[in-house]
């Protein structure tokens, strides 16, 4: 038995022993729970006895006050109104004051994995960073790392810039920042989410059964929504970890105005930390920074990143709201390449910059109790610039990939009754993408720019029964691509039905499309670091990508025990070989095809008073079909991960939170060469993707401790990624050097510690 297997079995036994050692929550009178909260958090509640005296609830009081009160509100018909730091009033929801859309957004599962993660009856998963508990390897709610804990979501190369949802590529995910499409998702060239969670109020993750208001994102939607409510109190926080420092402020400027600001910057150009060193080795392996010729040396690398976010809130009146957003994301790398040529020392500076800015203004009006409208104008600009000097060949290469995305959204919601609402709208987008490649020796220049205007209309109806047992959403969307005179009609459906009190069944189906994709030229692009660049469909060599997906799920939820199983099938047409990143006989082939993935996602989650544990398992079979490749026969997708298992446990004791998790998945496909036939600088490959990498295994640990510094709340956190220091190969390919076949292996992160400190004023 191998050392790794023994260690994994030990961890598994630890989880199981811990699982059996705790007793489950019992329902208690709400009055008793409120008394415990008052004593623990030094607060006072004022309420009418008739509103609470007969209510029973099962809830842990070991979490933050905000999380506890929010969970009570979700499980009851009560609302907590904060008078000041000490006093709260508790009242029943006044249905006249709340629109039906709020009633329809019912949370059916709390603590889906940990606190702050919820499952809604619309099929979406909601993540609230302010209430986030803890996950293995994470000490804060990194948006894109957090969603990878969900069944069916995986990163085959262990990054946040390459998230694969149900076998799709990363560019098939739509990332929205307060309604604005983002084209850059990662800092540190993929290892850290580019979206600061400090201002983010809620993240919605949708894998299927998407609302008709969403276009693009044929694999998933990640909708990040900032706080939209003007607060009466200021909220300020500062934080520091071994990678970056951050701060945020939410400051009311009056009863009708508030400004929200957040900023984050890397400290890696100031502090040399073990976390940075591990990240650097992981990101820049097998790149121009480390793969220079023997005669050339790369040195004096300088890397940093930052992001800033601003939101301005202004309530014109009780019915009219104006909101303004601005987001700035930046990564920069430069390094010197030095060599001695004919006894003369030569030096040059190579640079890589990645920049995404986004801004938007929205106007929302509540005309009456039944009708509200929403309008948004937005702009998003992504720019990737690289300058690469090759001293030995006296060559300079300039590359640029720029995306300019602007648009208009007009939406209307009409609430016919407390159980039925209708919404619809019009959307216009104009996307322009340019790609530049400029070489001085030999002289070569290529500049390609395309623009696509899309006109979209949608309509949707959502029904929820009075007893909340039945929820149905039916919508349709029409996209018109003016350049191609192409209409695409996209129906959407989601049904959620409760039966036998503790069971729910879900049915989801959708058609979707997108005109923007990424192509991969491997080591050719941008110093070999950022190997993907955005392109637009031309409806010939690069089609509009279309998908259709259906899923059926069953869940059981009782006494903090959650069992879910969801089977799905997804078909995606119009993919190109250049979008898939082949590193075999199809690397330089241009072909159009499709893939089909079938699978099932299973989750078992048990929550106790202080302890929680879950086990998720995903099975999928993902195959390509290209008419012009492999004699037309299907073969495994580059992202075909057949088995995925995540097992984790969390423990909360007063202000201490612990998490330990184990991640395992089967190896991804790759293509072996025919060693005997390969010669003369030519590699002859075996059948495409007929081999598999070794299985992937990683164990993670995290801990946070909350305490007070005077009147201020502070949190100290620590995490260890890959505590077993497992050597995982995440990619393998082959090259020919000096007429010899060479094998290249990319490794995952090794044991990587991190420490954070945050304080809230």
Structure, described:
It is globular and about 90 Å long. A hairpin with a 4-residue loop joins strand 7 and strand 8 (125-127). It has seven helices and 45 strands. It has one domain: Beta Barrel (Maltoporin, Chain A). The strands form nine sheets. It has a 22-stranded antiparallel β-barrel. A seven-stranded mixed β-sheet has the order 6-7-8-15-16-11-12, with no helix packed on it. With 761 residues, the protein is mainly beta. 40% of the residues are buried.
| Biggest sheet overview | 22 strands, antiparallel, barrel
Low-confidence stretches: 9-25, 95-103
Let me know the number of strands.
45
Q: What is the name of the CATH topology?
A: Maltoporin, Chain A
- Taken together, the total number of domains comes to 1
State Rg: 26 Å
Using the coordinates above, name the CATH class: Mainly Beta
Q: Find the CATH superfamily.
A: TonB-dependent receptor, beta-barrel domain
Helical fraction: under 10%
Task: Specify the structural class.
Answer: mainly beta
Average of per-residue pLDDT values: 89
Determine the number of helices (DSSP H or I, runs of at least 4 residues): 7
3D shape: globular
> Architecture in CATH?
Beta Barrel
How far the N terminus sits from the C terminus, by CA atoms, comes to: 52 Å
- In terms of DSSP E residues, the strand content is over 45%
